[in-house]
Design goal:
The protein is mainly beta. It has two domains: about 200 residues, Immunoglobulin-like; about 70 residues, Beta Barrel (Elongation Factor Tu (Ef-tu), domain 3), CATH 2.40.30.20. The chain has one helix and 20 strands. A hairpin with a 2-residue loop joins strand 9 and strand 10.
């Protein structure tokens, strides 16, 4: 054997050893749990058509886990039926492909009082201001809703009844207090790339995105880790910890959709701002928009939710600027 051949052999052995070591290290990386949530079976709230790949249980979330594994953050969702793609879905005039019918949003609250009340476009729901989301992990076969606080997986695997999505760990905040998982139906044409809801009359004999929407009422969430109503904000799960309960601004007057809140501290409320309306127990009743602020009083209009009867206070969000994840061991600034 020549000197060159021996060098090539030794290099190949070294490369093989390095790959084996890397694979072993990856396989043995410990899982550090972030969230574990069980969800009841049979609680899908909207009617959907059946199709090869879509059946009873396809959107019925029964378990969710989020954990760190090495340099990654992994989300695992278990459904009541196998996760299978729908074949021959037309995504353009001259292009068809296979798509998973499930789109999943995972809303995260990592910084108290900071974030967004409204969910992503097309979702049709809000979260309480005290539980505003800072980041959302979106698992979807279609790209849409881009933004600095929207994170997408590097790869997704469907195996049996489990959907596993891997995210870059450096992009996900290390401190997560609240989580909301929302299961939606993928759409090539619907707002936000999710299938919308009609009350009745949909042709739901086939999984046809052009003709058939989801049948029911309220937001297009088929299942979630929290209770979903037609109009009230959808709460996050705080994983056994106390739910945030800020004081807010007292409601001095309420009639129909109109409210007056007072006293308002300087800069606490501004025209156009979204706030959550809560009752005396702190339960979210709906979302309101600030119409104007004069002196220490603010005029508001309820934009979604139940009638203002029972309204006790309005809760604003402190800020809506995305917070960049800190390096490991650091603080969120």
């Amino acid at each position: 054997m020549s000197t060159t051949e021996r060098r090539l052999r030794d290099a190949a052995r070294a490369a093989t050893t390095l790959l084996a070591f890397a694979a072993s290290a990856c396989a043995s990386a410990p899982r550090v749990p972030i969230a574990e949530i069980a969800d009841p079976v049979g609680d899908v709230r909207l009617h959907h058509p059946d199709s090869p790949g879509v059946r009873d249980g396809s959107f019925d979330l029964v378990g969710f886990s989020l954990y760190r594994e090495g340099e990654d953050v992994v989300a695992e969702l278990t459904f009541d039926a196998p996760v299978r793609p729908v074949d021959h879905v037309r995504v353009a005039e001259d292009l068809s492909r296979s798509l998973l019918p499930q789109t999943v949003d995972i809303y995260l609250d990592s910084v108290p009082g900071v974030g967004h009340i409204q969910a992503l476009p097309g979702r049709g729901f809000d979260v309480p201001a005290a539980e505003a989301w800072d980041w959302v992990l979106v698992i979807s076969p279609l790209a849409d809703n881009e933004g600095g606080d929207i994170l997408r997986p590097t790869h997704t695997i469907a195996r049996g009844r489990t959907l596993r999505a891997t995210f870059r760990g450096s992009e996900v905040p290390r401190e997560i207090s609240g989580v909301l998982v929302a299961v939606l139906a993928t759409s090539t044409s619907g707002e936000g790339r999710v299938r919308q809801v009609v009350r009745s009359g949909a042709d739901c004999r086939v999984w046809d995105d052009a003709r058939c929407q989801l049948e029911g009422s309220g937001p297009p969430i088929l299942d979630a880790t929290s209770d979903v109503s037609d109009a009230r904000p959808v709460p996050l799960d705080y994983l056994g910890a106390p739910r945030p309960r800020p004081t807010g601004v007292r409601v001095a007057f309420a009639q129909g959709a109109l409210l007056t809140a007072s006293p308002v501290a300087e800069g606490q409320l501004v025209a156009g701002q979204l706030v959550t309306v809560v009752d005396a127990a702190g339960q979210a009743l709906g979302t309101a928009t600030v119409l104007s602020v004069a002196g220490d009083a603010a005029s508001l209009r309820l934009t979604s939710g139940e009638a203002s009867e029972g309204a006790s206070a309005v809760i604003p969000v402190t800020a809506t600027t995305p917070i960049a994840p800190a390096p490991e061991g650091g603080d969120h600034k």
